[in-house]
What does this fold into?
Amino acid sequence: MNSLIRDIRLAFRVMRRSPGFTIVAILTLALGIGANSALFSVVNAVFLRPLAYPDPERLVLLWGTTPNIPKEEASLPDYTDWKAQSRSFDGMAAARFINANVTGDGEPERVVGARVTHDFLSVLRVPPALGRGFQAEEDRPGAAKVVILSHGLWQRRFAGDAAIIGKSVGVNDEPHTIVGVMPESFRLPLGDAAVYVPIATDPATTGRRNDAYVVVGRLARGVSTEAAQAEMKGIASRLEQQYPNSNATWTVRVVPMLEDVVGEYRLALGLLFAAVGCVLLIACANVANLLLARATARQRDLAIRAALGAGRAGLVRQMLVESTVLALLGGAAGLLIAIWGKEALLRLSPVAIPRLDEAALDVRVLAFTLGVAILTGILFGLAPALQAVRAAPQSALQEGGRGIAGDLRGRMRGLLVVAQLGLALVLLVGTGLSVRSFAHASRVAPGFEAGHALTARISLPAARYAEDPQILEFFTRLEERLRGLPGVTGVSFANVLPIAGGGPFWALSIDGVPAPAPGDAPDANFRIVSTEHFALLRIPLRAGRLPDARDGLQSPQVAVVNETFVREVLHGEDAPGKRIAFANDDQGKPLWIEIVGVVGDVKHQGLDRSEVRAVYLPMAQAATRSVAIVLRGGESPERLTSALSSAVRAVDPGLPLYSVRTYEEIVRSSLQARRFAMVLLGFFGVVGLALAAVGIYGVLSYAVSQRRQEIGVRMALGAERRDVIRMVVRQGMTLVGIGLALGTAASLVLLSLTSSLLFEISPFDPIALGSAVLLLGAISLSACLIPAARAAGVDPMVALRHE
It folds into this structure.
C-alpha cells in the first residue's frame, strides 16, 4: 500500500512537470469516456434497469400472431379463454388505451386513459398510493363508474388533494367516483395513462377479432417463458378448432415484458454504443502515442533508476499508475461531458424510445465510468510502459533513447495510428450510410400535399354522442364554422392521417371470388374520411369517382381503394364496380361494400415505410367519434390554432382539442429516429476523424524531430526540399493506406449488420464507402504535409551543430 501511495504521488509530480501534456491527455480521454458514459446511461435506463414492478422477470406480454401478422393485440373473448384455460400464470390481466376527456374543476382536458381488468394492478403487484384498486363487481356491465388517477393528473388538476378519494370527476362526460391514486413512479408497460377505469364489458358482446387489448401475465414460480409458450400454443390450437372463422392460423406469442418493451431498439442503440466505443479506442490510441513520445524524454531517467536497482516490474507499475491516474482524471472530467451529453440525447432523441426519460447518472453509470477509466488507463498505458523499460540501461544511457527501443516505439506508434485510422473509417462509413439513408427517405414523395395545413384531434364522448346521426350532426356543424374562418381554404376529417399511421386491419372477401380458407383471406387497412379528404390533401383519383353527398347513412355502402389494393388483392383488375366484404364477428357475416374509385398510394406509416392495402370509407356511412381535423390555409397555418379551438368550443364547450400540429411537423417527425441516428453518428464520425488526424500528425511530427540529424545530412548532401517532403509524406501515407485498407475491410463486415436500419441503400454502398475513404485520406494527407513542410525547412548546419 505504501508503494502504491508513493507511485500515485510521483504520478502527480510527473503530471505537474508537463502541464500541456496532462491537459491534452485528460481532455482527449474525457471526450471518449464522457461519450461512453452518456450513452451508457441511456442503455442502462432502457435495457439494463429492471422494470419498476416486484419480480419483474416473471412478467410477460401475450400477443396474437399469424404467419402474416407477427404481433397483434388480443380480443376480449380470446383473453378470457386464455386466462380460464392456462395454468402457467399466477395472474393474467388486460388493458386497452383510450382517449379520455376529463371534466369537472377547470377546463376540459384530453388525456390518455386505460381501460383495465379489475385485477390489472394486482398482477403487476403495484397498489395505489392512495385509496384502493378496483373490485371484481366494478368490472361488470352496468356497474357504478369508478376511476383511479395517475399521480401526475392528481397533482396537476387536483393540486395533490389528500381528500380526493370519494370525490367525482367526469371521464368522457360520465361522472366517475375516484377510488385511488397511483404512485408517482408507476408506468404502464407500453405507455403512460392519466386515468384508469374498469373494462366493464361482457366478452360475449365483442367479436373475436376485435383486437384491442394488451394482455399481461405473471408467470407462476418455477414456470419458464418457454413452458408458458408451449401451453398457450396448445390453447390457441383448441380455440382455432372451436372458432375457425375468426381464429384460423392465430396463435399466441409469450414475450418477457422487458424484451417486448425495448427489444426493437436494441440493434440501433447497440450500434451507437459501438460507435462511441470506437471514439474511446481512438482517444486511447492518441494518449498512448503521447505516452510513447514522453517515454523517449524520460528514457534516461528510467535508465538511471534501473541502474540504481529499480526492477522492471516496479518501473512498469509506476508507469501504469501514472496512466491510470491520468485516466481517472479524464473520467472525472468525462462525467461533466456525460451530464451534458445525456441531456442532449434526451432532447434530440425520438420520444418513442421507452424508458428514455429514466436515464440518469446513477450508481451503475458511475461504476461503469470508473471501470472504463481504469481499463483505459491500463489499455493505453501498458504498451508504452513495456516499451519504455525494454531497452538495457547501458544502451539507453549511451544512445539517449534511440536505437532499438526507439525503433520499437516507432513501430508501436505506427500500429496505433493504423488502428485509429481504421476505426475512424468505420465511423465515417457508418455516418455516410446514415446520411444517405436519411436523404433517400427525405426525398420520398408522400403521395399527398402537407404544406400550409394544420391538424388536430378531437374525441366525442359516447355518453352524449351514442348514435351515428348525433356524431354526423356535430361534424357538420363544426365544418360549417371552420369553413367560415378567415384564411381557411379547406376542411376535412379522418380517423387516421397519412404519415401519422393507425387504423384497423380487417380481413376481406371479394364478391364472385371463391371464399378463401379461414385465415387465408387478404386484409386491408380501413380508413374513414370525409368527402373533402382527397381534394384537400391532393390525393389523386386514378379511376372511378370519389364519395360525395349521395353516399349517406341510408345509401348503399361504398368505398375507395388505393393502388396497392388493386395490385395485391385484385391483381390489377378494374376496381370500380367490384364488391368487397369484411367480417368482424365469429359468424363472418358479410358487410358488402361497392368499390366506386381508386386513389393514389400515400405513405401512411412514414416516409420510409411501404404503403399497405387501404380501403377508404366515407365518414357519412361509417361515423367515428375519434377524428383528426385538417385545415388548409395561409402561409402560417399554426395561426389558425386559437380560431380552431374557439370553433370547437362554440359547437360543444366540453370538448378539448389535442395533438395540434402543422402537417409538415407530422411529416418531419416520421423521420425523427433516422435524424437522431444521423446526428449522433455524424458527431462521433467528426470526433473520430479529428482524433485520427491529430494522431498521424503527432506521429510524423515526432518522427521528424527524431530524424532531424538525418534530414540535415540529406540536405547537406544535396537533397531537395521536395525530396524531404516526399519522404515524410510517403512515411505517413503508408500508414494511412494500411489503416484505410483495414478500415474498409472492417466496415464491410461490421456494417453489414445495419441493413435493417437503412433505407433504399445497401450497407456496401460505394458512394458512402468511397466518400469516407476520400475524406479521411484527404484529411490525413493534410496532417502529413504540415510536419513534412517543417522537415523541409530544417537548416542542415543547425541540425548538425545541434547533434
